[in-house]
Amino acid sequence: MNVDIFSLAFFWTLYAIAATAFLLLALFALRHFLRWANLEPLSLRSQTIRVTVPKNLDDEEERKRPLKDKLAAAETMFSTIAGLAPQKGVKAFLYGRNDNIAFEIVADHEGLVTFFVTVPHHVVSYAQQQILAQYPDAHLEVVEDYNIFSPNGHIVAGYLLFKKPYLFPINTYIDKEVDYLNALTNVLGKLQPTEGAGIQFLMRSTKKRWQKWGTKLAREMQKGKPLKKALRATDNNPLKIALRGMGEARNFVESKTPESQQPNRSPYQLSPMEQEMVKRLETKSSKAGFEVNIRVVVSAKEKSTAGQNLRRILDTFSQYGGYEYVNGFRSVAKGESKKLIHQFIYRAFDPRQAMILNTEEMATLYHFPLATTETPNIRWLMARKAPPPVNLPKDGVILGKVTYRGNGVKNCELQWKLGNLK
């Protein structure tokens, strides 16, 4: 009788496990289908904004400003965008989040390097306001989505991943007085008009818990632990947690032995480089962060040319790496990957390509061109647009309409009118 009860319980347990596994598999298969089916409608609910800024060659004071002051505007812009709360709930789980923002640098068939920002409809006004708050001289124009592809050309793509865990920072404009973006725009500026390329920084706000790991690691190192031991002590992998528990038990047993039998161990002293790394870990964790996909797509008539251009652009990102304790990027060239090109076109976020970058790192990777940027083929703003006078008559014949500082900002739209003729 007991055997029958045990067998029955075992059978129903296996049945419950199998049913749960099947339901989970079906749920994730449904989610995968819904997300891919929703890509195109999602992209149609976004607007692409072309951003142009004046070069300000005659502004000597602007040219002499320290680079840190110039790029602080970009970091502030990203900090305000990071304030957008990440989407949650059943709809976001099944269909995917629709709060992704794409910052892109494009070499088009006109031979110009242009800066674009693509945002969902529900945050267009907010994004425009934040950009103009930091770049008051910029001109924002809502345009049709760009096209870098040619009918008979070859398209290749690649993306970037971190070499180390995300808590390690890359080199930024704060560390060195260098505008790293110059190298990227120079490579793009050398492409032929028959070629095209796009660098996409697809980002979305992330949950604040990402900061805990870096803060905890810095705290462990300040206690006198070398990097490897501190990493083991802060790793959240369940297997490593179990092994760490065994090690702590052994240390407890050793602590009970008489002091005379314990080996003399001098406390570990952090090297100057490790102390600097601790500061950088704390700095990265102290700022707002984003989940970011970085993708590169290149088009050219010849497949070999497209591959060479892709490799040049990806190799440029090596400048953000450094010594042992600095993070860096490793490139993944996927060739003519339809999936990756599809993700680029529809700006689909892929968690498997995600990296966590804070606002300082994003400002280093992407900002609008500076007056000191020497790339010759950048699309600059050649003439500034002035607002209409505030004292225009309110009655009369409507001659036209002027939109100042972006579309859809109603309090900035004024109509030119002619007063009543007497």
Describe this protein's structure.
This protein is an alpha+beta fold and 422 residues long. It has 14 helices and eleven strands. The protein has helices spanning 2-37, 39-44, 60-64, 67-81, 90-95, 124-134, 181-189, 211-222, 227-234, 238-255, 272-285, 303-316, 338-346, 359-365; strands at residues 46-52, 101-107, 113-120, 139-143, 154-162, 196-205, 289-300, 329-335, 355-358, 397-403, 413-418. Helix 4 (67-81) crosses helix 14 (359-365) and helix 7 runs antiparallel to helix 12 (303-316). The protein is globular and about 95 Å long. Residues 238-249 and 407-422 have low confidence and may be disordered.
What's the mean pLDDT score? 81
Share of residues in helices? 40-55%
Report strand %.
Answer: 15-25%
Question: What is the string of helix and strand elements?
Answer: HHEHHHEEHEEHEHHHHEHEHEHEE
Give a quick set of tags describing it.
single chain, 422 residues, 9-stranded antiparallel sheet, two-stranded antiparallel ribbon, 19% strand, disordered C terminus
